[in-house]
């Protein structure tokens, strides 16, 4: 199946001269949940805004459900729902009208049964006659989601859906995202919360300084997260790693006093017992051992730190 969203060599230079995106490319498969992780100012909102037709790209192309977002913008827009970061709602409108009106904006006839389904799914049905101003922040955010879903988009963009929301509501949102995906909706969310990406995404994309640094299957990334380091402190410094230990791919510190062994915690065996016996057979005396696990957070921070 062709990707539902195809982003190719997308760049955006704002009028200020700021390069918010530098040749970003990304393919999003139908039915997946992709989390875009990145620090403030990385270019996440710019990327989403271009896909949704709110910002014009400087160069590159984006197609949604096979429709170019510039040439064929109407068809592309119909395939997309966007839940923006900022809560922008008319304070005195009623919940039901706000949501139903949005469907009209897409040139679609009113569908009271669908409106009820969407509002019920978001626990807003009891509040349908409330004015926006009478709602809590979390409820307002759910109204934004209802507005984004009411024209039955195939792709839903959530720009930091749980920023400033309490833990309980955050979990409710995650469940909702999972339900939508089960119905076949493709979901792209941006987030600062690594645990959010871990909890719900199928794939994780890391963006920093306008570049997509990595897009990887979460399970694979978790495997990488599962890597551990064993630091072996030696009684006497080594000039080189002996050839008999070649199979272990050990790294020797520049002062020759430490060896580092990387291993996969999810593998059946770590090999540490055999490594220690091989070290002893090579006449190497170990003074101390330390293990260190790299977390997704560390991987993320390291990747992002290397960029300007
Ligand atoms: N309209 C604009 N004019 C000029 N610069 C802009 C404009 N919009 C965004 N930028 C700049 O582009 C860069 C990327 O911004 P963007 O909002 O895409 O980042 P982000 O990854 O969504 O950040 P955050 O996590 O803070 O929401 C930032 O440096 C921002 O200041």
Automatic annotation (TrEMBL):
Name of the protein in its database record: ABC transporter ATP-binding protein
Which superkingdom, per the lineage?
A: Bacteria
The keyword Nucleotide-binding is annotated on this UniProt entry:
yes
Would the keyword Lipid biosynthesis turn up in this protein's UniProt record? no
ABC transporter domain spans which residues?
A: 5-234
Q: Which PANTHER family match?
A: ABC TRANSPORTER ATP-BINDING PROTEIN
Could you tell me the keywords of this UniProt record?
ATP-binding, Nucleotide-binding, Transport
Q: Which InterPro entries does this UniProt record tie to the protein? A: AAA+_ATPase (IPR003593), ABC_transporter-like_ATP-bd (IPR003439), ABC_transporter-like_CS (IPR017871), ABC_transporter_ATP-binding (IPR050763), P-loop_NTPase (IPR027417)
* One annotated GO molecular function: ATP binding
